[in-house]
Specification:
Signal recognition particle alu RNA binding heterodimer, srp9/1, 4 domains, 612 residues, 15 strands, Rossmann fold, binds adenosine-5'-diphosphate, single chain, 50% helix, four-stranded mixed beta sheet, Helicase, Ruva Protein, domain 3, alpha/beta
């Protein structure tokens, strides 16, 4: 299953070579050809050259009434008319001329023209053809298209027993169950035909980046042991209008030849975006999409070609693409849950040598919200860390550290914080943790650190959720906002000033509060009316407002009020636990990193305020 693609030299490169060759030919050849052309001279010149013994071959043409001769070195050919000259033969003999009797090779003007113009052009065309054929062979056969443009370039994965299987894709059980039906169909299509059931032509895999959509598509091909064509949506879109459409045709032609097979189009939103008829819209993209729609209509169901496509922006797809008969099945591939994360870690950890201490459940809990790709990266980072430390096995500490590397970047070894800054950061982080711990519904703290990271974070508090959370109550959300304001609250309480360290907290708290009011119906005034719609569910969840200007003002007012209220709550919690705050901040300042257990121990021993 290799997908090696040779880098293509641009076409212009070959043309420059051919042009250089052409110029060279003209430089060398044209002067020579010009020399070989016959020069017409007067009889006196002929007589002078004979007298100077500068004469080579001579041919007397009685019929045409002309004498053709060359100079002594045979470099140029001359011609002159015949004049009554009785002593000519003797003089020529004395001059050492050769009467060869052969016709001196003359360069006719037509031949000269042929040589200096036609031949180079023919060479030019022949070379061009040769190069284009070479390029096309690189692109994978079929010479019918000019310079390989309009070819699909789909990478074909031939049947392979070592391909990716469902077992390699951890978690994602629902998606696998859904797709195993396709595998079953490809194994035994007659079972479906008999009863009159038809398989969906297209299946859309939707989900955030790195959740294993490509992997799942490959696994379907691996399980069903059929050829797999893979192409990215952006590869269809070319500079010239119509090229993308031609690529789509080519892809489907190849697929039909190889049926049963799977065609996988990654990032289909690149061509499948809604055709909104905007002026100056992208013609090429629309034509490509139209061609795709036509092709999908064109082949009958149950012909063994299954199209899988992946996207993380399903809402931007053209409705014509998602209607039944085209991509009529949608398989969500979501971020893995706790169990899924643990399984993904285990799959990737098979390749690395592990210490016995490794507890995947704990790592999975720490890496909440991580995608499959991030988890794979975490395992690899841990292995790299082990190598850096000259160990030949990976420990729990490696994995924990690599989670932080993936979330917050590497430790900044040379970042120099002043004493005061370090103190502020310590209070800030403990503020978060303390507010989180004091609220009954907030998740306990796993780790607090004030080691600066390359992402720019000067420290952070890692909260850990014990189980899976699918629903969040209003109270939980409010507590979360309070926790986010806890850092700033601690700074204000202790240092009576604010710092820039809270910018990220402010952003998150505002986002959460806005969502509560505009989308979750948690504001009394707006009841269950949506004021915002999410436009980008899987890519950051951007939302766009859909309400009047007056309502917007009211929303802004309520957002501020909500955050303010939680900020006050955090202030109060910290003020009530001032002694614990100082104790924990001092401890963190000394140690730079404290674990959840250490934190809880300090918090609970002789605690004046019991944790609710
Ligand atoms: P997507 O197409 O959804 O963006 P990919 O399928 O390309 O994501 O996944 C990228 C990488 O992440 C894979 O090569 C694999 O190493 C890892 N990965 C993602 N999801 C999983 C999973 N469920 N099980 C195992 N590995 C996974």
């Amino acid at each position: 299953m290799h997908e090696v693609k040779k880098p293509k030299k641009p076409l212009i490169f070959y043309y420059i070579i051919v042009l250089a060759a052409l110029l060279l030919i003209n430089f060398l050849f044209v002067p020579w050809a010009a020399e070989r052309q016959v020069k017409e001279v007067g009889y006196d010149t002929f007589m002078d050259m004979t007298a100077d013994k500068n004469i080579g071959e001579v041919q007397i043409n009685q019929q045409d009434n002309e004498i053709v001769f060359t100079d002594k070195d045979n470099t140029a050919i001359y011609k002159t008319g015949m004049v009554e000259d009785p002593g000519l033969t003797d003089r020529l003999h004395d001059a050492g001329a050769k009467f060869s009797g052969q016709i001196i090779e003359q360069e006719s003007p037509i031949l000269a023209f042929l040589l200096s113009w036609i031949v180079p052009i023919v060479i030019f065309i022949a070379l061009g053809q040769y190069m284009s054929r070479k390029l096309m062979n690189k692109a994978g056969g079929d010479n019918s298209m000019i310079f390989g443009m309009g070819r699909s370039n789909a990478k074909v994965y031939v049947k392979s027993s070592e391909g990716i299987r469902f077992a390699d894709v951890a978690g994602e059980d629902e998606a696998k169950e859904n797709l195993s039906e396709i595998v079953e169909y490809l194994h035994n299509p007659s079972k479906y035909r008999e009863i009159g059931a038809s398989m969906p032509k297209g299946i859309l895999l939707v989900g955030p980046p790195g959740t294993g959509k490509t992997m799942l598509a490959k696994a379907v091909a691996g399980e069903s042991n059929v050829p797999f064509f893979s192409m990215s949506g952006s590869e269809f879109v070319e500079m010239f209008v119509g090229m993308g459409a031609s690529k789509v045709r080519d892809l489907f032609r190849q697929a039909k030849e190889k049926a049963p097979c799977i065609v996988f189009i990654d990032e289909i939103d690149a061509i499948g975006q809604k055709r909104d008829g905007r002026v100056g819209g992208n013609d090429e993209r629309e034509q490509t999409l139209n061609q795709l729609l036509t092709e999908m209509d064109g082949f009958e169901t149950n012909n063994g070609v299954i199209i899988l496509a992946a996207t993380n922006r399903p809402e931007s797809l053209d409705p014509a693409l998602t209607r039944p008969g085209r991509f009529d099945r949608r398989v969500p591939v979501e971020l893995p849950d706790l169990k899924g994360r643990e399984e993904i870690l285990k799959v990737h950890a098979k390749k690395v040598r592990l210490d016995e201490s490794v507890d995947f459940a704990a790592i999975a809990r720490m890496a909440s919200g991580a995608s499959g790709a991030e988890l794979a990266n975490i395992v690899n980072e841990a292995a790299l860390r082990a190598v850096r430390q000259n160990r030949n096995f990976v420990t729990q500490a490696d994995l924990e550290e690599s989670i932080e590397v993936v979330i917050a970047g590497y430790q900044k070894k040379n970042a120099i914080l002043t004493d005061q800054e370090k103190k502020v950061v310590a209070y800030h982080e403990v503020g978060h943790a303390l507010v989180a711990a004091m609220q009954s519904h907030s998740a306990p703290v796993q780790k607090i650190t004030i080691v600066p990271r390359t992402s720019g974070a000067l420290g952070y508090t890692m909260q850990v959720e014990e189980g899976n959370h699918y629903l969040m109550s209003q109270e939980e959300l409010e507590n979360k906002i309070a926790t986010l304001t806890g850092g700033r609250a601690a700074e204000e309480l202790v240092f009576h000033s604010a710092s820039t360290g809270a910018s990220n907290d402010i952003e998150q708290a505002t986002k959460l509060a806005r969502a509560m009011i505009t989308r979750y119906g948690m504001s009394k005034d707006f009841d269950m009316v949506a004021m915002e719609t999410v436009t980008n569910q899987y890519l950051g969840g951007d939302a766009s407002l859909s309400c009047s200007a007056e309502t917007q003002t009211e929303i802004d007012r309520q957002v501020v009020e909500l955050v303010k209220k939680q900020h006050r709550k955090a202030d109060q919690i910290l003020a009530e636990n001032r002694d614990k705050l100082d104790e924990l901040a001092d401890y963190l300042y000394e140690k730079e990193t404290i674990t959840g257990e250490e934190f809880m121990e300090i918090l609970t021993h002789q605690s004046s305020v019991p944790i609710q």
